[in-house]
Amino acid sequence: MFQVVLYRPEIPPNTGNVIRMCANTGATLHLIHPLGFSMDDARLRRAGLDYREYADVTEHPDLDAFLETSHPGRLFALSGSGSRWHTGCDFRGGDAFLFGPESVGLDNRVLTHEAVTDVLRIPMLPQRRSLNLANSVAIVLFEAWRQLDFPGGV
């Protein structure tokens, strides 16, 4: 299935919502440190409800550690500076989707990392800064899962 990668997430309820989403889609969630919260944070638990036990969540000290242990098929970074829409890509099982911290997104060093296959964007109206992190993950993850005809879904 797919891998969702949150690079230095800052807001616990966003990560809790992504945990719930990964549990319900079969995606693996990778959290790249530092995190802006503790994994014991009540807001994280409240947003994730009781789905943590169903989610495959792995923490990594940095992006390189994630790459060394997870070996994603392809790594797509999501950014407002992306060259094409997320719908313009044919996704495959094993693909990973990399999202940046809520306050600043992915920095240029990460966007140009040799492991990044492509930088994709979610369409928005002009003069808008960003979408909520959990919503962005949902948009991309469900598009990728839809392209594969929702394997395992009921």
Descriptive report:
With 154 residues, the protein is an alpha/beta fold. A 7-stranded parallel sheet has the order 3-2-1-6-4-7-5. β2, α2 and β3 form a beta-alpha-beta unit. It is globular, with a radius of gyration of 14 Å.
Distance between the termini: 15 Å
Structural class by secondary-structure content: alpha/beta
Q: Helix segment count? A: 5
**Mind telling me the C-alpha Rg?**
14 Å
Task: Note the topology.
Elements: E1 3-7, H1 12-25, E2 28-32, H2 42-48, E3 56-60, H3 63-70, E4 75-78, E5 84-85, E6 96-99, H4 108-111, E7 116-121, H5 133-147
Parallel strand pairs: 1-2, 1-6, 2-3, 4-6, 4-7, 5-7
Helix pairs in contact: 1-2, 1-5
Write a short abstract of this structure.
The chain has 154 residues and is an alpha/beta fold. It is built from 5 helices and 7 strands; from the N terminus they run E-H-E-H-E-H-E-E-E-H-E-H.
Name the descriptors.
154 residues, alpha/beta, seven-stranded parallel sheet, 5 helices, 20% strand, globular
